[in-house]
Structures are given as C-alpha cells and as structure tokens.
Amino acid sequence: MENKLTRANKLSICLTVFYAVIALVTAFGLDATYSVFARTNPIAALGALFGFPAVAATPIMWLMLIFILVYIVLFDMAVCYIMYWLRRHGEKLYSKKAWLYYSIAFAAAVVLSLGLGTLFHLSVGMDSYPTTMIFVSQVLVLAALFFVILALAVYAIIGIAVYCIGFAKVNLTSYNEEQVQKEKKEAEEFEKEINGEDNAAAIHDAEDVSSSFGEIKKAETISSSESANASPVVSGTNALPSEVTLKPSEEEVVLPEKEKLFPALNAIDEEYAASNFVAMDNPGITLPSLIDDLQAYLASKEHLFYEKKELALFVTAMNATHLIILEGISGTGKSSLPRYFSKFIGEEAFFEPIQVTYKEKSDLLGYYNEFTRKYMETPFLRRLYQATYTADRLNLMVLDEMNISRVEYYFADFLSVLEFPEDERRVSLLTLPEDYDSPRHLRDGQMDLLPNTYFIGTCNKDDSTYTVTDKVIDRAVIIDFETYQREIAVDRDVSPILLSYAGLNDLFRKAEEDSDLRFSEEDRSRFLDLLAFMEEEFAIALGNRLLRQVEKMTPVYQAIGRKKDELLDYLFATKVLRKLQGRMDSSLTLSLRRLSDKIDSLYGKEAFLLSRKQIERTIQRLGL
C-alpha cells in the first residue's frame, strides 16, 4: 500500500474506518435493549428527538449492519485502488471510463452487503426485515451526522491552532530581529571602547557583508544566537565569520533518463533515426484539378457529396491559417471532410475526441506524473512529435466536437503559438535542466510545431456545446455546413493521389506569384472602406488578421477557378457579420439597411449574396 496509494487515498480509508466505528457506537446507543448504554444515553435521546422509533436490535440486525459497514470500507478501498490503476495507466480520474469503474464498485458493494445480510435473514424469517432496515437506516443517518460534526470540530481546532502558531511565529520573529539589532549595537559600542572608532567601523562593514549572505534565507543561514554571541575578532582589517552554512531552499528534483521519462517520444526517435523520408507527388496536379478530383473521389468512392465551394474554401484556408473550424448541424459531413481529404492525398488524419472535462493543455499534451516519475504521453503528443520527422507530409490534427468544452481553456497555448513566426512556434511540455539529454526534437522541454501541422476543429450547433468566441474565430477560418449533403452525379471514377505538404505549398506559392490573382490595392481599399463602415456603424473593430487572411486566400481561391467577390462575401459573413449575433437592439435595423446600401455602392447589387441573406435574417430576428 505504501507504494500504491497517495496520502489522500490513505486519509480517505482512515476516515471511512472512523465512520464505521462511529456507526457501531451509534448502534449501541440506539439499541432499545440498552445492553451497553443506559436508557437515558444522549444518542437515544437524539434519536427520539428526530422521531426515530425505538428498536430492540436482534443478532440478525447487528449482522446486517456489520455487513453494510464492512462493504462501505471495502468500497472506499476499491475506489482508491481504481484511482491508483488509472494513474498508473495514464487515465483520467474523472473520465467516463473512471466513473463506470466507480459505479461498478458501488453496485458490487451494495449487492454484496445487502445480499449477504438478506441471505442470513432468511434463516430467521423475513417478517422482521423491515424493522431491520429501519434500525440500520437510523444508525447510518445518525452516524453520518456525528461524523460531520466531529469533522467540523477537528477542522476548527486545527484552524485555530494554525492561526495561533502563525501569530506566535510572527511575534517571535519580530522579537528575534529586535533582539539581534539591540545586541549588535551593544557589541559595536563595546568594540568602540576597546579598539577605537576605526575598528568598530570594520566590524560594522563585516556584519553588513555577512548579512547580505543571509538575504537568501535569513532564518536558515545564521541563527539569532550566533548573531548575538559571535563577536568577530579583527586585527585592523575587515573580517568575516569563518563559516556560513546555506541550506537549499528546496530539494533538487532529479529526473530519470529520457528512456524512462519520455518512452514513447524516445521510441519515435529510434524509429526515425535511420529513415530518410522523401515526399512523393503525382505529376501534373493543379489547384483546379485537385478540387475537381477530390469532389469526384468523395462522391464515387466514399459516397460523400460536397459542393466545390466548400472544398475550395477548405483547401484555400490552408494558405491563410493553421486553424480551420468546420461548423454546422450534426450529420453534414464535418468530420468526414478532413478524414477523407487526408486519405485522398495519401495521408491519415489524427482524431482527438474532445471531452467535456478538457480544461488545460495537459489534456492534449500530457503531464509529468510524480508518482511514476514518467511523463504521461498522450496520443495527441505522440502524433505531433512524429510530425517533426515528416516535415514534408501534411499532418491534419482533428479536434472532434471542439466546442464541447471551452476552446480557450485547453487550446489556449496553441492559439498563442500559432500567431508566432513559423520558426518560433514551440509548445512547452516540461521544464528540463540545461544539461538533460532529452528526446531529439525537444529543446529545453519545448517541442517545435512545424508548419505542416494543421488543426481542424469540428463544431456542432446545439445547446450541448459552448459558443465559439471571437478570440478563436479571429484566428481561424470558419467553414459553415448549413444543410445536409445533396447527391452529386459523377461520371468518372477517381483514385487517391499522392500530394505532400511541400507539393501543396508549391501550388499556393505559384498562385501568389501570379499578379493577376493577387488582392490588388483597389480591392484592399474597397474592403477597408466596408470594414470602416462596420466599425463606425456597429462598433465592430477588426484587426489585421482578417486582411492578412484575405490577401493569402484570394489568389488561391481564384486559381481554383472561383470568384474573388464570392470569397470576400463568405469571409465578411462568417467573420464580421457573425459578431452581430446576440444583439437584440431594434435600432440595428436602420444600420443594417445602411449596410446593404454600402455594399451596393462598393460591390453592386448582385454581389455579396450570402451577406445580404444574413442581413435579412438579422432584421427578421429583430422583428421589424
């Protein structure tokens, strides 16, 4: 047990045993035979106060009670050992799997305790069974009350004791400092009389230097008695005490070797140590052919039907951001798109099913377990680390049901890191000593986040999820799946291709180098005019991220064969007009009408159809 259970587990078992003892004492007090306690005992009086009927306990009642108390203790021990097993295997203590184990243990304890008690009860007949359960219930309830009262009393006593000790310690520290200063002054005056003014100054300087060492930890470097009794002997020069002992502020933590601390990451190092991966691409791939073949492949091979606009937005977004959010109602193909896109280009996407318990980055990247002295390496971490060896391969990390927990909690570090320049993107795992021999692609406990890695989040729109906040939306490109897929007729059979991250990046660079496809100064001026109107009319301020995304996506989207204004319309609707959701001020109606007029003047009456549709929906929602 010493090597398996934590202090909290041991305390839990002790408290459960203590409750069982209290329950036995309570039972003797409630027993109407009064074979142990007198009729006037306070336990029986309290039971009468609560209206408990007096029950003369029989041996079979005591046997039933003992069975229940024993299995209460055994249940607590079972839970503690389940927690040990979960920690040892890197599982979460409060996951759905863990709660299933706890529930099984609870059910087993209830069935065994009541079952064995009932089995013995059959030997004397079941007529007294209701009376037995009344007696047992009275004992358990009253014992729980006594347990809570005693626990609160002990807690209060400990709190008062800690406060008194702390108060006395503060006063004692204050007294010691005053006493030291007083004795130092007396020693200084004494030395003046013996050796003269110069020698006293030397002593004062020596004590100043000595006290500077004590700034590290005054109470541990030199005691009050040493300060008072030690009068340094000087001979015309400054002198220091012969020895100063410094205690370390905390015990140094010694980490095991990398093979034990990071076994999975070390195994990846060994696997890829001798490999020379070279990315292979099918010849003749262009952006238009990529979208056409992808749509045909999904329809013919996987029976998935996506509009070319959806596929074009998905591919184009990869040139603007490393965080893409696929949003919509359930069953519209959000999770299937990254899965089968990866399959189409010869890769395999990684899926991380987000749990409602995810609150911090350790839920994705793991943590150092002080019990096992090993870093708990998650599959998510292993895939990210593996991607550092395959920089030419496209690595899609899918955060499935991303908004079932708050994205800003568990994904906060990635949101920040993705804003850094590509060669500075690192996520921190563990603070390691400078001379530690860490896995090959961990630098000072930080792992590189290479540009070949993209995070794809799927988000459902229902009451069971959290709203994706502006902080996330501003950094991502949202692709909205509003309706179910409609079947698309395909007259050709398409097989998967080979396309690496390097090959896809080359297609993006070629599109950006085409001056006819770029986001021109005239386009920039018109779009900025529209954004300025939104800030003035709706107080919606947008940073430079949106403009950078537009400039990166426009040439790629046009190279695919789509229209520039269609892209601007989509981004404006999903990233700008989205910020009006939740506003219920009826005065917005006039502003929305003026926004439609502004779009007419800048882009014409036939442009920005999606944005116009969203504007009309907002007006209808306002009820005017």
How would you sum up this structure, described in words?
With 624 residues, this protein is an alpha/beta fold. It has 24 helices and ten strands. The strands form three sheets. It has a five-stranded parallel sheet with strand order 2-5-9-1-10, with helices on both faces. It has a three-stranded antiparallel sheet with strand order 6-8-7. Strands 3-4 form a two-stranded antiparallel ribbon. The longest helix has 67 residues, at 129-195.
Largest sheet: 5 strands, parallel
Which structural category do the helix and sheet elements fall into?
Answer: alpha/beta
Total beta strand runs:
10
Give the rounded overall mean pLDDT: 82
Secondary structure blueprint with pairings:
Elements: H1 7-30, H2 42-49, H3 59-88, H4 96-121, H5 129-195, H6 197-213, H7 218-221, H8 224-229, H9 258-261, H10 263-272, H11 287-301, H12 308-317, E1 323-328, H13 336-344, E2 350-353, H14 362-365, E3 367-369, E4 374-376, H15 379-387, E5 395-400, H16 407-410, H17 412-417, E6 426-428, E7 442-443, E8 446-448, E9 453-460, H18 470-475, E10 477-481, H19 501-513, H20 521-538, H21 544-560, H22 564-576, H23 588-603, H24 609-622
Parallel strand pairs: 1-9, 1-10, 2-5, 5-9
Antiparallel strand pairs: 3-4, 6-8, 7-8
Brief sketch in words of this structure:
The protein has 624 residues and is an alpha/beta fold. It is 56% helix and 7% strand. Mean pLDDT is 82; it is low at 194-251.
Features:
alpha/beta; 624 residues; 24 helices; 7% strand; 56% helix
